[in-house]
Amino acid sequence: MSELTPPKSPSMLDASIPVITMIGLLTLAVFYFGDNSSYGPNQIALLIAMGVAVVIGIKNGHTWAAIEQAIIKGVSLSLGAVLILLAVGALIGTWLLSGTVPTMIYYGLQILDPSWFYAAACIICGIVSMSIGSSWTTAATIGVALIGIAQGLGLSPEITAGAVISGAYFGDKISPLSETTNLAPAIAGSELFAHIRYMFWTTIPSIGTAIVLFLILGLTETSSANNDSIELLSKQLAQQFDISFFNLIPLIVLLTLAIKKMPAFPAVSIGALIGGLWAILFQQELIMRLAANGSDELAANIVVVWSTLFDGVSIETGNDELNKLLSGGGMSSMLNTVWLIMCALSFGAVLEHLGMLKKFVEAILSAAKSTGSLIASTVATCIGTNLITADQYMAIVMPGRMYKEEYKRRGLDPLVLSRTLEDSATITSPLIPWNTCAVYMSGVLLVNPLDYLFYCFFNWLNPILAVIYGFIGFNIKKLAVKTAS
């Protein structure tokens, strides 16, 4: 074939083969590796599917050199998010060490009352998840405790699981520490804190309605049991940390920087460093316990805080579930997520370069004439990707890549796409029984997804509200029109 001959456009069969390969391999990954499928198996599946796409591309006249450049360009889009994710890992570690996260958990636990237990469970999980940026860790710690308390109070574990998941995913969704909250704007091309502020328009009405529904459900039930489990957890937190309102200052600083619109990477990095300083000022006893035997005070402070920044913190309390809550963080904790993002973006970049994504988009968009139908198509595609690939990261990356240019062509701000990705991809993942998120939630909360999904009010309301906004044109941000000077 002559070098001047342009490559052939892919047929629908050409475009479908890599996707079918990916779906098949990801399904096998979930089947054989379960919850651990995102820790290597999914990455291999994506790379093999990418290899299949490359072979088809070369068959159609593309060169490896051009495909390689497309991969490099695609991966480069994630570099800003990678820096933020590494800073977030450091921040989680130092906020655990400084007592910032434990203090938020401690005071959050104090608001529990049996008469409005479900609403309180939702709020507490929202606070904890927002503070640590992880719905999974929240569910495995506070969520497990709340399920146990519900059983002791004679309340519904299914409704409690719905409240835990609703709160956990709300907090995860608006936390700058969350992996998915960083990933969505990175894919869509929006800025992290602007993305979070824009999500308030859908998340606040959704979580507000969910809390009201949980409050109504809670007020219809009575209980005579006590809150011994919460008191024990609070006592264990106080034994490990110097609990004080002063520990919340790193959070206040980060929120202030966000309000002042400082870019995410320096803001989160500053928050992480302040967390390390706060640990030195307020958690000396803990630092000395974590330090190597025989370390002097100066060496202990330097080594423990430095190690926390890159490798997180591990705290032993005698309570396995509390250990999970109080341990983690560090830049190294984000490396697997970075790996998955790079593999997913590489696969998406190849499909985009070879014209395969365009082939799918043309078929889908042929029926999406209005802004409302475009947003509805995006929501449906994200949910469909969650159904097929069983991975929330894939449900963000693939539709984001597919629809990015169409949103821009129609004059829609990238914030509209990033918000829609989160309104659908992130929060519907625990509702699909075979999705890794649902498998995880069911495993730690010991409630079948088919039983709790009806009570995940926030997770249902949010995508519905996103579609309604699209069709009525409410709060749909347009690209700024550049005028000639």
List the helices and strands and how they pair.
Layout: H1 12-33, H2 41-59, H3 64-76, H4 79-98, H5 100-109, H6 117-132, H7 135-153, H8 157-173, H9 179-188, H10 192-219, H11 228-240, H12 249-259, H13 264-282, H14 284-290, H15 297-311, H16 320-326, H17 335-353, H18 356-365, H19 371-389, H20 392-409, H21 414-428, H22 436-445, H23 449-452, H24 457-472
Protein model, in words:
This protein has a domain at 80-334. It contains 24 helices and no strands. It has helices spanning 12-33, 41-59, 64-76, 79-98, 100-109, 117-132, 135-153, 157-173, 179-188, 192-219, 228-240, 249-259, 264-282, 284-290, 297-311, 320-326, 335-353, 356-365, 371-389, 392-409, 414-428, 436-445, 449-452, 457-472. Helix 8 packs antiparallel against helix 10 (192-219), helix 19 packs antiparallel against helix 20 and helix 19 (371-389) runs parallel beside helix 21. The longest helix has 28 residues, at 192-219. The model has no long low-confidence stretch (mean pLDDT 85). It holds the Pfam family Na_H_antiporter. InterPro entries: Na/H_antiport_NhaC, Na/H_Antiport_NhaC-like_C, NhaC_Na-H+_Antiporter. Its main location: membrane. Residues 167-474 form the Na+/H+ antiporter NhaC-like C-terminal domain.
